[in-house]
Design brief:
Its main location: membrane. This is TonB-dependent receptor. Keywords: Cell outer membrane, Ion transport, Iron, Iron transport, Membrane, Receptor, Signal, TonB box, Transmembrane, Transmembrane beta strand, Transport. Belongs to the TonB-dependent receptor family. By secondary structure, the chain is mostly beta strands. It has a single domain, classed as Maltoporin, Chain A, CATH 2.40.170.20. The chain is about 5% helix and about 55% strand. The chain has four helices and 38 strands. The chain has a 22-stranded antiparallel beta barrel. A hairpin with a 4-residue loop joins strand 23 and strand 24. The protein is globular, with a radius of gyration of 26 Å. The two termini are about 35 Å apart.
Amino acid sequence: MKTVLLAGVALCALAAAPAWAQVPASGTVPTDTAIARRILTPGAIVTATRATDKTGTTYQNVSRDQLQARNFGQDIPYLLDQTPSVVTTSDAGTGVGYTGIRIRGTDGTRINVTLNGVPVNEAESHGVFFVDLPDLASSTQSIQVQRGAGPSTNGAGAFGASLNVETLGLRSKAYAEVNNSAGSFGTWKSTIMAGTGLINGHFTVDARASRVQSEGYIDRGWSRLKSLYLAGTYSDEKTLLRALVLTGYETTYQSWYGLADSLLHKNRRYNEAGTDAGQHQPGYKNQTDNYQQDYYQFLISRQLTSTLNLSVTPFWTRGGGYYEEYKANQGFAKYGIGGPAFQPNASGSLDTLTSTDVIRRRWLKTDLYGATYALQLRPTTGRLTEATLGGAFVGYRGQHFDELTWAQRGLNIPETGTRYYDEPNAHKTDFNVYARANVSLTDALGIFGDLQYRTVRYELFAPDGRPDGAKSQQAINFRFLNPKAGLTYQLTGSTQLYASFAVAQREPTRTDYTDTPAERRPTAETLFNYEAGLRRTAGKVQASLNGYYMRYRNQLVLSGHLDDVGNPIHTNVADSYRAGVEGQLAWQPVSKFTLTATATASRNKINNYTDYLADYDQGGEKATYFKQTNIAFSPDLTAAYTAEVEPVAGLKLAALARYAGRQYLDNTSTASRSIAPYYVQDVRLRYLWHPAAFAGLREVEMALLVNNVFATEYVNNGYTYGYVYGGQTQYFNYVYPQAKTNFLASLNLRF
């Protein structure tokens, strides 16, 4: 397939965090060394999109060591499943391939993701596809998970959470690593990475190559993933320059169809994809998704004075990809095949044919380009502790077109294929600017303020309101003003009270326009986010307790309809909310034992909701009104824990578990259309050995991860649709079964 390039640069630093959540990465230049004092390191540049203990918001920093302990080849969402309010999903059932994450019940299209401060979410769908970033964890220094609206960030507004990913920091010494993992369902990860360390006290080069593959738990749910990472840095006492290229390539067999729930206890690994010619025929072997993503990043940072720093990051993304599928009995007219075709029958006469089997590819090509900037002031005296002026300009072009590569009859297709649908290019411009400041009112009381202005212009091909449902190129404009404020009160040196209020606004996605008639066109949605909590960040017992209330105006939720390829159609609801309490605990009674645990109890409701169901008997739709109902995919309870013990030096044994309460597939709170609660238990063994000097070998790590040790049969995602026909209301549920007991083992050599 062709190339997709998506980009961003802006070097992040690990913001202040609870001590139990912040472990320095091995080999990173410490800030108190002589070298670190002579040069400007990435750690000296705190990204403007990160929260700190002065912002009064809810967040957790996940360190490199924590990520590497979980990194056996599964995608980023699965490495974050121990953080509060998280539910993960996997189409193929193994955590490799197409995976997803929900935080506080909100899906990936509402979770703002940045890579080194630059937006990652696709400009039209707002989605983030971690399958296009295989083994990103191997090149990650830290991830900050912000829950709620959080501080101002680049890209679409955060409507439940933000993930701020920071790539590898500066390492003073040369290094090399060879990491290999293998396990159930043909899963295999191979990673080679190396770095020069500091050359002449100023230059470093870091590189990584990875390959991840899996056959998947679901039949034919295989993945073939590749990734490259290359970064070069120049740094002195006042200047930091970094160029970075990150490339990801994926080919996966489609497993996004899900499994009809009637088959769940008969053949839970069945895959409907590729069976359009008939369920008793072999699945079409090339029913695949193909995509490549290349991130080109360049950071320019200059220490203007001892207290003032300017960072500018130009970026560019370009590329495309397609998914291929076999479709049976397709009408000629849909593909521009003119007139009927004829074929002889048994009696010698001719049959008239108006349909054919085809193989088609649906393409997306994109360009994403622009720049982010941040001017940061950190005074050394006075009540103002930090102030930032930042923002970004992002431009986007999206090309949507479809082509035939084969037709059974009626059309001769060249080897290069023939286009049967070519949509005018979509264009989007996104400009935002924000100002932020932290002020210490007293030695204990601090105040935080943040004001963002964001303007969006979106040009796309969508229904224009004509009776025949015709589409035309249209322009839609948005202007958003998003204020945020917070208070922090330091009770003791390690105990803090905090509270914040934030407004976030978000434009609809492409399909919210293209799949909805013009008279029901959605509008932008608004979130009013209240957070308050108490956290203790030192001592043998460290804990936090956070309460949140997220009030939505015009939230886009599932309407009950699906588009022509099975994607859900959304509708605005005037009044909805999410409210909950999140608890987090880290306990280390002795140096050899650690327990961390999280739990969230919540209510997620829509007031005055009307659900619509197609009525093929009477025509039109059947409406059902609910005074109050649950928001789909929003469990009332989630929990997770990790207990790790080190019985002998270097050997660590851990038990890990996660729980999710009932999740409804639609907004009707109907148990028969829901995902049952599930509890999944994993165990992990890690042994770290420091051999005597041998060919430069510094460290050997052997690890084993056994997932789902109790062989729980569970699903973590699904969808539903229904209609009225023949006097009966019929619903069809599809779910995504997850693997039973399976394992991954790894051997990591570090030089």
